[in-house]
Amino acid sequence: MTTRFADQSVLVTGGGSGIGRAIALAFAREGARVAVAGRTGSSLAETVGLVEREGGKAVALVADVTNSQDAARLVRETVEHFGGLDVAVNNAGILGTPAPVADLEEDEWRRVLDTNLTGTWLAMKYEIAHMRANGGGAIVNIASSLGVHLRLPGLGAYAVSKAAIGTLTRSAARDHIGDGVRINSVSPGPVETAMSTRPGEGTAEKADRMKVQVPVGRSGAVEEIAAAVLHLASPEAGFTVGADLVLDGGITA
Predict the structure, then answer these.
(1) What single-letter DSSP state applies at residue 191?
(2) What pLDDT score does 199 carry?
(3) What gap in Å lies between CA 74 and CA 81, rounded to an integer?
(4) Cα→Cα distances 248→25, 63, 91, 179, 184, Å
(5) Do 118 and 93 touch, CB atoms closer than 8 A?
């Protein structure tokens, strides 16, 4: 355990698995108290258990960030549990059902945009409100290399939602840096999570595909994404405002 984030309170949405879980663990290892939020209580409890096993402090908050009342409650309950909110990481997101743009169902389009974009905006709305009233803070949004940087067939809704997160991040960063709230984003490429694994694809098959598709020859580790998030949230990144850090092994270089 280190102390870079000692005595700080951190909220991580989508904290029940994958990148969100890795981010929660990374903050806890550096001394933060972490609220992990998501829709599934059992997976959030697993994250909390992993944090506590290493001697950290965490709490699980079941919520749906597409619901304004839930988004407000996440901030309120984080403050009630830990006394404040210093850092927020908005990671909750879904891939959606792949389909060409003309074949997307309206409900699926709305589901992806509501979760990825509107959910991020709602979470930020209440995070920023608390931070600007309490001395400032840092927010990191999880976008994607799919969007502004890259498009793939059948993933139009996802790409649009993540591209919009990048614009939302930069807009909010300009709006609120004067309030002491510093906002940036991270755009991961293919990572060792279920979201970047094709249906029925085994570990060896995915590794072979990554050797061909990714210039660095592999997919990213969730710990590498978490390290970038912690850097952007830390005082060392104090001059970094409205930036988007692309971590994709060179795919979009």
Answers:
(1) B
(2) 81
(3) 11
(4) 22, 30, 17, 32, 17
(5) no
34 in Cβ contact with 63 (< 8 Å): no
Kindly indicate the confidence band of residue 1, based on its pLDDT and cuts at 50, 70 and 90: low
Residue at 252 is within a domain: no
What does the pLDDT average to over 45-59? 97
Find all residues with CB under 8 Å of 193, minimum gap 6, and list them.
17, 18, 19, 222
CATH number, position 119: 3.40.50.720
Q: Among residues 158, 159, 163, 183, which one is catalytic?
A: 158
In sequence order, what DSSP letters do the residues of 37-68 get, joined into one string? EES-HHHHHHHHHHHHHTT-EEEEEE--TTSH
* Cα separations in angstroms, 224 against 49, 55, 65, 207, 247: 22, 22, 25, 17, 8
Assigned domain for 127 exists:
yes
The reply to whether 158 belongs to the active site is yes
> Which structural domain, as residue segments, surrounds residue 156?
9-245
Q: What is the pTM of this model?
A: 0.95
